[in-house]
Amino acid sequence: MKNPIIGIDLSGGDHDPEGRLQAVKKFSKEQKNIDIRLYIDDQYLSNKQHLFAGLAKQITIISTDQAIFMDDSPLKALKKRKSCMSLAIKDVAEGRADVVLTAGNTAAMVAFAKHWLKPLCDIDRPALATLLPGTGKRTLLLDVGATLDYRADDLFNLARMGSAATQSLGLGVGQPEVALLNIGVENTKGNDAVQQANRLLESSELNYLGYIEGSSLFDGYADVVCCDGFVGNIALKACEGIAKLIKISSGKSRMGKLLGKFNAFNFNPSQYNGAMLLGLDGLIIKSHGNCDEFAFKQAIHQAVSSARTDIILNMKNTLGG
Amino acid sequence: MKNPIIGIDLSGGDHDPEGRLQAVKKFSKEQKNIDIRLYIDDQYLSNKQHLFAGLAKQITIISTDQAIFMDDSPLKALKKRKSCMSLAIKDVAEGRADVVLTAGNTAAMVAFAKHWLKPLCDIDRPALATLLPGTGKRTLLLDVGATLDYRADDLFNLARMGSAATQSLGLGVGQPEVALLNIGVENTKGNDAVQQANRLLESSELNYLGYIEGSSLFDGYADVVCCDGFVGNIALKACEGIAKLIKISSGKSRMGKLLGKFNAFNFNPSQYNGAMLLGLDGLIIKSHGNCDEFAFKQAIHQAVSSARTDIILNMKNTLGG
């Protein structure tokens, strides 16, 4: 797919949409051949009309008066069928957009995705997948927060899905190497779900390496690492926390200040914003709710480049075959 | 307790015990008034006699021919009652040592701790607790790997225990502030165990703040943060992984190299080595299995300073009252 149509849900998120809107404006100036469908709450649109003046012609605005809040339960959110998030995901389901990006309520996003989109082959629990930073081979970590309380067979399907996604993204040579995230690498380690999934994976046709510990996540040890969405989300956010602490600590020293000026600190979690929701017949990209303009722009790029790989079509071929 | 007797289990761990032995030797030169009971495998002792020549007189060697391996299941390990780990923990139970330090198999350590030591008051599941690095207030994170699959009432007891431990350590003013680690701060977020524990904690007498996300772990937001041992272990190790990546990435730039020379990079996970096993009537400190000499020496200091706070006695008073 050369130039995907991208749906961008500006509602929700932890902050006012202005930073995200600026990101859309900058992106549309740089990439004039990408059509954008922009979903926005009526009230914001009428209150901030000046921000929408002179919008590029490839941006179509869709506005609505139903808002989803960050603390809405999935059940409550699902009743708001005319919310930005619902309309945006429905547009992917019905072919009016090729990919949708949102910084809104994750649980609501998963609920609408399951409502409007068909499952991908035999996958019944979708997962959020993100490419981890690294100096060598990049690792795809999933699930980072779509589905909680994985059973062994869910973890097994997660590994199949991660392997298919990595192949589609052109990462890894041949059969992607898959590992399970655990508290130790020995066979006796871990909770019941992980130990049972380990046995299922050992007798599967996947290129399964066994367990991996949190400390090896950024070593490029495996192409794909699988874990429960609760664990993956907390681990990833803890990494953001420690990166922030290291930046603050280093910034306090004289050399750290100098380093900051030279911008040698080349790890910035915002740079990696944009996780793919996999396991459904349509592509959704989730931005960090707490994103700023830079981070949201990175997520827009992520949405476009993921759509360009035709990842859903390729995964369907791999998983269905 | 002024000068605790410390038991040090040199067996197990991910590497040969030599680095750990060097740490013991250096420590005993610096702190001549601390008696050490050193547990070591017979075979290592006879093969490496030269390393044990001229050992300080305050070090007593206890050797045995039963070895626990890193991949022994707890059940298999428990049969080795004459192993270093078993003897060391038994010595704490019977008053021959005030604290024991080990870098061995965590699950075996927990099994022996439950076997030889009485539970602390009504706590039935022990937890590993570690002080997180931070620039301001330090946070106690528990559980980082002793017990997996926490139910809601276990998480509630974990919060009680963490609050009591923090008071004993003299951290936090008055009633320690307690938070639950979750994937979001809204009430609707999280798995069932976390949501139920949240309700129990809201109606408790603890100074409960609610949920905290991984990204805020190092902000000094709470005095105590509670989570399942599976989640805590993976989050903590992922932080080690990203810290290593940042160090490597920065080291590659010219300014990063300069920074390295000035040692401004003041976050080193080894510095924080030594987690306390809490919930039993005896003090055990767990070193990272993958520790080097520096990290093990930090854990020895951690063991001595924890014993000096009389943490077990103080926790008994708080929890029992």
Descriptive report:
2 copies of one chain form a homodimer. The first copy, chain A, is α/β, with parallel strands linked by helices. The first copy, chain A, has helices spanning 18-30, 42-47, 74-78, 84-93, 106-116, 152-168, 192-202, 229-252, 254-262, 293-308, 311-320; strands at residues 6-9, 36-41, 59-64, 99-102, 127-131, 140-142, 177-181, 207-212, 224-226, 275-278, 283-286. An 11-stranded mixed β-sheet of chain A has the order 3-2-1-4-11-10-5-6-9-7-8, with helices on both faces. In chain A, strand 2, helix 2 and strand 3 form a beta-alpha-beta unit. In chain A, helix 6 (152-168) crosses helix 11 (311-320). The radius of gyration of chain A is 20 Å and the shape is globular. The two termini of chain A are 22 Å apart. The model of chain A is unreliable at 259-266 (pLDDT under 50).
Topology of helices and strands:
2 copies of one chain form a homodimer.
Chain A: E1 6-9, H1 18-30, E2 36-41, H2 42-47, E3 59-64, H3 74-78, H4 84-93, E4 99-102, H5 106-116, E5 127-131, E6 140-142, H6 152-168, E7 177-181, H7 192-202, E8 207-212, E9 224-226, H8 229-252, H9 254-262, E10 275-278, E11 283-286, H10 293-308, H11 311-320
Parallel strand pairs in A: 1-2, 1-4, 2-3, 4-11, 6-9, 7-8, 7-9
Antiparallel strand pairs in A: 5-6, 5-10, 10-11
Helix pairs in contact in A: 1-10, 4-5, 6-7, 6-11, 8-9
